[in-house]
Design goal:
This protein is an alpha+beta fold and about 700 residues long. The protein has 17 helices and 31 strands. Helix 5 packs across helix 8 (about 205-225). Pfam families: Metallophos, Pur_ac_phosph_N.
Amino acid sequence: MDIPYKVSYFLIFLLLPFMGAILLVLIKFLFLDEDSDKTANNSGKNSNCSNTLALIISCLYIVGFTFTLISFSSWSFISVYVVMVLNVPMMTCFTLYQLVKQLKLQRKRQKVKVVNINTLNSTAASPIINNSNGDGDGDNSGAGNGQVLSDLLGSPKLRNGFYEINLQELNGGNRIEPIGDDESDLEDQDYRFYYENTLQQEGEQEGAAQEFYFNSLDLHSKHHLSYRQRMAFKASRFKWDVIKVWQYKKMVLVASVLVSVFLGIMLPLAFENVCICSHPMSLSTALTRSTYCPSGQVCFVYLSLPKDPSHSMIIQFHTRDKPLLAYITYQQESSNSSSNSNSNRKEITNYLSMGNVIRDEPRYVSFVDLVDLKPDTEYWFNVHVESSNHKVYNSRQYSFKTLPFNNDDVRFIVGGDIQMNSDAVNLGKLVSDYQPHFVVIGGDIAYEDGIGSCYQRWDERLLFFQNTLAKDNRLTPLVLSIGNHEAGAFFQSYKQVPFYFHYFVFKIGDSMLSVDKRESFHVHKISTHSSIVSLDSCVTKLWSEQVEWLDNTWSSVELKDTMKMTVYHTPIFPAYSPLDSKIAKLGIEYMVPLFDKFNVPLSFENHEHLFKRTKPLRHGQVSPQGTVYVGDGAWGISSNQRPTNNPHGIFEKTAYSNHIWFVNISIQSEINSKANKTISLRAIAPDGQAIDEFDLVPS
């Protein structure tokens, strides 16, 4: 199984903030950690600019981790509540850490120095800290600050202007050895802490003294404490720091923690249904999306081409409201009245809820199988829905035309890889003017990348099919192939395909099947003379898994005498990728022998975002009686500018161009009771100009 594209989008959420953080770390290291910067603001630590960058770097780490968790929730890997449980304590601890850090940065005026007292091996010392209650003249009992130190640090002794602090006593009796035996060892690590502002609140000098103690202990712990002892010491220090923040910055602490909890809860909720998808790359959330499917109306109406489109048709439509009762009325002539005496009524075959995929809003997809239709006949229909709240609403009137059943000409359009832009719209208008019997789209239809929260990509395509491809409300049936962007990658399971199998069925009765029972390959008979098979190019089914079905289908009495064509997403003979790439190689192994066996004259390929036409190929070699492979999927997509090559001499023509194929199958005469068929093909660019044109006369 390939890694789904949404996993790479996780990395975007994660890596972009971390890449920014790494860049800032480099800037900080290269330009802002010089000794001159550390003393620029009377600080023994980094400059203000460096400290600000450090805060931004930390925030970027938190943002990256938070949004990565949110993306896992959005794409249904973990619950949003799990994200909140992880996010709230993480953001709260981060806030407390930053508040502690900022409080420490305020203590920059007081000077504290660690010295080595040779006569007391387990001691450290602090300079006398004067306050309004003492003058620091060396009298321990009379100095106000001396009393504070005595209460905190266990009766420190005054010696030569420094208070001596017994580290052995402070560490619960566990002796901590000095760094060295002589004073020079400490001179090399002369730890100084400068405090920029004299803090006015009562007790701040006490905090400075305790800060000195912790730094002194930390200096020794780096060399003499076990890992567990160091962790316990750091936890104890962090707890003490938080208490000090509570004492001196109570309102700031309360407000900051409340904001952290709020963000820890609201960010996952606000970004729970995030959509990030490609072609074009876009990002949206439930808060930024407006609905395409409001309550009280039929939202999208579209047709799927069944196996026998001369006598049947499959209608699908969407509603926001659950259909308590839904049906269509149809007749052979247009009528503005749904109660036309000549109309037929057909209730929906089935409907399904999209609630497990679309979480922004309710969505229901309904299916209607129409059978026993007349060939080459135009039908008009209306959709009628009574919702669960007993409101009744109707669609506007649409029409469709069944395919001919005699040896009549059939015309259709083939394209793939649709990106909505002006090129796609212009090509769609050309389709509407051509009025084909059906439209074939060879995968990568919406580029939602298998992400349920990107459902509006499909809404946009369904509107495109309904409004742009249709002319005068005449809907064109669709034949689709599954592409890698429908599943998020190749070699995926049905569970990784949130829309394709829910929105479309191509066989009468398949709407009654559960979604995981609907096949990704299907066949369609074109009049009496031709057929086209849509295959799965290793998206959810391997080539090898379709061989037996395809052999039996083409050998059946119904199809054995038809001219056979195929469509699928990933090319077997790609214009750019090497022929020994995995999917192409498997296609050559499993599919090409069947194409040769049944004399397939034409195969439509996609995926490469290029234009190409091969020479006729048989057994992978150029042969006049072989299969012509055309493609390669560029219906508005940004055309690849990758170089095409022709190392095997198999290509007749290649180009960088958006295009669709106009196909016409005509019956010119009958020879020995068999129709003499001609396939006329034109590749049309968005401006309406032909970039290729040729005829095929199958043997």
